[in-house]
Design goal:
InterPro entries: Arg_Kinase (IPR023660), ATP-guanido_PTrfase (IPR000749), ATP-guanido_PTrfase_AS (IPR022415), ATP-guanido_PTrfase_cat (IPR022414), Gln_synth/guanido_kin_cat_dom (IPR014746). The protein is 46% helix and 17% strand. It is of the alpha+beta class. Strands 4-5-6-7-1-10-12-11 form an eight-stranded antiparallel sheet. Strands 2-3 form a two-stranded antiparallel ribbon. Strands 8-9 form a two-stranded antiparallel sheet. Helix 2 (71-79) crosses helix 11 (310-317), helix 8 (252-268) packs across helix 12 (323-338) and helix 10 (298-307) packs antiparallel against helix 12 (323-338).
Length: 339
């Protein structure tokens, strides 16, 4: 089965992915930080039973007890955005329900009792929300959510009170970055109730000009309004990036030199670090989007990004690798997909 990130999607030249995440807690259990191991076990069993009624593309979810996985497999899931870093810190009594295409992942006993997450390729916030809302409705009919008429859904962190919704998009903004406009953009979206973070979310670095834009406000606003606000602003960011890319084309010869040098590195390198991969694939992705490169598809680039994380490489190889061995395998993988 193909993965969600391989699908063609709206605005895929700039928007890599859309994500909807809902935080939910059950009224008959204390918050996760105050639960005993026995309560965590009981909650996992209860939620797993409720999740047995959830289907994605006509198929039921698969389940994994996180403490049954090797550490490298857990980190590989973080790299593919299947689970959060918080979820793998202590895997005891933590359950993951997920779809075969990896678009749906439901984390049990994370910071909140439930984190329902749906991923979609490109700018697809509405379809991701519809899938997430469908799963939420099924669980709501089976479980007793902690809900207050004034505060909305009760969550461990007060910043999630209300809808419990975090909507985010992952965007590729090389032209705005090269133009020195990212600080201005960050200040602007902050005033509009959004935030811009690094490639892997809060506290992470920016790799390959890839940023996450997400909502900050969850209280006093409906889920649909939060999503519409994010989407409307992302569309403006897309237009800004397109204008900046047109400016880069004014010096087409220089741009082509950068793009095709990066393509050459990816096609012929024998050792490729993670940081170098992101830098070069960013230039190649820009070249594909501007029609300078014709024999590489965006979906193939997305797949390379999913397969070339350090933990993902070790997972496929079935063992821990030295940094140089990882760089060697990464280079081989990239050559296979980009040749």
């Amino acid at each position: 089965m193909s993965k969600w990130y391989e699908a063609k999607a709206p605005h895929e030249d700039i928007v890599i992915s859309s994500r909807i995440r809902l935080a939910r807690n059950l009224s008959d259990f204390p918050f996760e930080s105050r639960m005993t191991d026995e309560q965590r076990r009981q909650l996992s069993e209860k939620v797993k039973q409720a999740l047995s009624h959830v289907t994605v593309s006509g198929e039921t979810l698969q389940f994994t007890e996180m403490d049954s996985l090797e550490e490298i497999k857990r980190y590989a899931m973080v790299e593919r955005h299947e689970v959060s870093k918080e979820f793998i810190k202590d895997p005891t009594h933590r359950l993951l329900g997920y779809s075969k295409d990896e678009s749906v992942s439901i984390m049990v006993n994370e910071e909140d009792h439930l984190r329902i997450q749906v991923m979609a390729s490109g700018l697809n916030l509405t379809s991701a929300y519809q899938q997430c809302n469908k799963i939420d409705d099924v669980l709501d009919s089976e479980l007793d959510y902690a809900f207050n008429e004034r505060l909305g859904y009760l969550t461990t962190c007060p910043t999630n009170l209300g809808t419990g919704l975090r909507a985010s998009v992952m965007v590729h903004l090389p032209a705005l970055e090269k133009s020195g406009l990212m600080n201005q953009l960050t200040a602007t979206v902050n005033k509009l109730g959004l935030t811009i973070r690094g490639t892997y979310g809060e506290g992470s670095k920016v790799l390959g000009s890839i940023y996450q834009i997400s909502n900050q406000i969850t209280l006093g606003i409906t889920e649909k309004d939060a999503i519409q606000n994010l989407e409307s602003i992302v569309l403006q960011v897309i237009e800004s990036e397109k204008r900046a890319r047109e400016s880069l084309l004014a010096e087409k010869r220089r741009l082509e030199d950068v793009v095709f040098r990066s393509l050459g590195v990816l096609r012929y390198a024998r050792l490729l670090s993670s940081r170098e991969f992101f830098e070069e694939i960013s230039n190649v992705r820009l070249g594909v989007s501007l029609g300078l490169i014709h024999d590489v598809e965006i979906s193939r680039i997305n797949r390379m990004m999913a397969l070339t994380g350090s933990a993902s490489i070790c997972e496929r190889e079935g063992r821990e690798l030295s940094p140089e061995d990882r760089d060697f395998v990464r280079a081989n993988t990239v050559r296979t997909y980009i040749s």
